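ugh ok fine here u go
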Amino acid sequence: MLSLELVEQYGLEPHPEGGFYKETYRSSETMTTRGGAQRPVSTGILFLLPAGEKSRLHRIKSDELWHFHLGGALRLTSISPEGKVASVVLGPDIKAGQLLQHVVPARHWFGAEPAPGSAFSLVGCTVAPGFDFDDFDLGSRATLLTRFPDAREVVLKLTDK
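structure:
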C-alpha cells in the first residue's frame, strides 16, 4: 500500500523500463557531450520499483548514480560492453553488505528488481551528463541473448519476451 501512496504523493508516472518515476532535478546549465549533443550538466529522478516488477535491461550514454532512499533492498545487475555481469544490492542493511549508493557506468546494460521480501524500493538516480530519452536504449531479449550468451540467466530475468 505504501508504494501506491508514494506514487500519488510524488506524482510518479510509469517508466518505459518498468516501475514509476518523476524527474526531480534538471540542471539549468548545459554542456556539449562527446557526441556533440547538448545536455543538462545533471538530472535526478525518484524511481519506485514495487515487488513483482522489474527495471528491464537498458543502457544510457552517461554514468548513473543510484541512491537508496526507502523501502526494502533492491538488486541492481549490469552487463559491461565486454559481457561481464555484476550485481549489487542497494538497501538499508549496510552490515549485511547492502549499499546506499552505486554507480552504473555509461553504456553498461542494467536492470533491477526488488530483493526477495521487499514490498518496494524507492531510489534516486542522478545522471551526468543529464538524462535524455534520446540516449535511452531498452534492450531486446533476442539481441542481448545473441550479444551476451554467458549472461543468459540475467537477460531472461530482466527482459520481456
